[in-house]
Structure formats: structure tokens, C-alpha cells
């Protein structure tokens, strides 16, 4: 059997994300191209590498064996690039960073800006993922750095505190909810929501609703917290957003902010790297920078 580096990179991406769609995006391939490569890998090896289901993909025993060897190869390639980069000062480099929604939108821009300005030859490939996907991808060596909820932490990661992230409910002033100090998701089951158009936070809220036996009713799904707050302030529906966004937009959007009392609404965020990886100087530098002077304490 003959697998090239693109095949192995794709396979690790799919294994880390638990999804062919997300894995293809991480590997920079179209979904049809990724699916064809995965089929060719199974045909070349004469063995099934993954089981495909409605909730994503899981590796077979043969797939786990391939993933193990692919990770070793990937680690060796990363170590080689890291060592060579120390000699090629004039070349550009790129770091892979995964983040949950709240950090990506509200916290990372201000934290990344001074570091990137001080390191003009380093680019960042920044992608949004759910925390559990981030943990798997970083532990597998597919991403350099992750920012995730502590609840998703698994073995094989080094973590440093990053920030606290609380989700709150936003609604129009004068809404019945504004008389409450806090509210649980189950108490809003009959209300119409404003949501994000896909993304990790949308998936997180949907999963928590499903765990409580709820299926939230959405009037519209939007692309930003700003849009959700503007629509909530106009009385279109209620939204769930990070407290940092609600505070920033409270006056402009004319919204009321109510504490979401569910335990999953408050998350401690950490920045993480792979525990046994040979970290290049840029990765070590960014890792320490993101953990320094934590916002939201």
C-alpha cells in the first residue's frame, strides 16, 4: 500500500474531528476529493479504516493502527520543520490554532494582535471547533495550539489558564425575563430563540438542549453576536451569547442581560498544546503569550 503525506494528513484530520466534512476542511480539500482519497486508502490497504455513521465517523481497529503510525510520521515532520525553521530565519511560517466560538470572536483578536505584530513572518491558520474536537486534534498533533473548555480536556495535553467564559441570555428590555436574576434553559423551552448560523457555540447549545430533552425553536440564525443582540433588543426573540459580547453590546443594542443558571453555561477556558510534542520556538512563544495577562478573570 502507498499513502502519501496528504493522505495521512487527511486521515488524521478526519480522525481528530470525527467528521469527514470537518477533516476535509482542516486538510484544505474539498469534500468530494477527501472522500475519494479515503476510499482509495481503504482499497489500497484492502481493509476498512473507519465506520461512517449519521453522527460522524469512528476508526476501526485497522484505522487506529494507521492513525498511530500517521501521528508518528506527522510528529517527525513537525520536528523537522521546527528545527529547520531555526536556520531559515527569512522564511515565513504558519501555525495551526483551533478555538471555540467565544474565544474566537470575543477574546482572541485582542490577544493575537500584539503577538502577530511582533512576529511579522508568522501567519496563523485560525479555525473554529467545539472543545472536544479541539482536544482530539491537538492531542493527535494535527493543530499546534487549542483554546478550549476545561470540560473537554483529555490526556496528552499541557494546559494553561486562558479565561472564564459565561453564557448569558439577552432579550429586549421589558421582556418577562428581565424581572429574573437568572434563568435555566428548561424554563425557556416555549420561547423563540435567535441563534448563530452553525459554529461551535451553536452545536454546544444544541447538545445541551438535547441532553435536557429540548429542541429549541429558532426564529432566525445569524452570523454574529452583534446581530443576535441587535435583533434581541428589537424584541424579535431571545439569544444566548458570551457575557463579554453582551456587556460590549448592551448599550448599543438596548438589551437586557439575564444570567444563565445552568452549570454548563460557565466554562473555564484553557490554552493547550500536545504534551509530548517537540514545540517549535514560535509555538512555545504563542502558547506562553496567550496564557499571559488573562482577560475575564
Report what the structure shows:
- This protein has 297 residues and is of the alpha/beta class.
- It has three domains: 5-84, Arc Repressor Mutant, subunit A (Orthogonal Bundle); 90-163 and 267-291, 3-Layer(aba) Sandwich (D-Maltodextrin-Binding Protein, domain 2); 165-266, 3-Layer(aba) Sandwich (D-Maltodextrin-Binding Protein, domain 2), CATH 3.40.190.10.
- It is built from ten helices and twelve strands.
- It has helices spanning 5-17, 20-27, 31-45, 61-85, 101-118, 131-139, 200-211, 225-233, 243-253, 281-291, and strands spanning 50-53, 56-59, 93-99, 122-128, 145-149, 157-172, 182-183, 192-196, 217-222, 238-242, 255-260, 266-274.
- Strands 3, 4, 5, 6, 7, 8, 9, 10, 11 and 12 form a ten-stranded mixed sheet that branches. It has a two-stranded antiparallel ribbon with strand order 1-2.
- It starts with a helix and ends in a 6-residue tail after the last helix.
Keywords:
10-stranded mixed β-sheet; transcription regulation; 3 domains; 297 residues; D-Maltodextrin-Binding Protein, domain 2; globular; WH_DNA-bd_sf; LysR_subst-bd; single chain; DNA-binding; alpha/beta; two-stranded antiparallel sheet; Arc Repressor Mutant, subunit A
Structural class: alpha/beta
CATH architecture of the largest domain: 3-Layer(aba) Sandwich
Number of domains: 3
- How much strand? 25-35%
Question: Helix proportion of residues, in percent?
Answer: 40-55%
Q: Can you count the beta strands?
A: 12
Largest sheet data: 10 strands, mixed
Shape: globular
- N→C terminal distance: 52 Å
CATH topology of the largest domain, by name, is: D-Maltodextrin-Binding Protein, domain 2
Number of helices: 10
Average per-residue pLDDT, rounded, comes to 89
What is the CATH top level name of the largest domain?
Answer: Alpha Beta
Rg, nearest Å: 21 Å
* CATH homologous superfamily caption of the largest domain: Periplasmic binding protein-like II
Secondary-structure element order, N to C: HHHEEHEHEHEEEEHEHEHEEH
> Regions with pLDDT < 50 over 5+ consecutive residues?
none
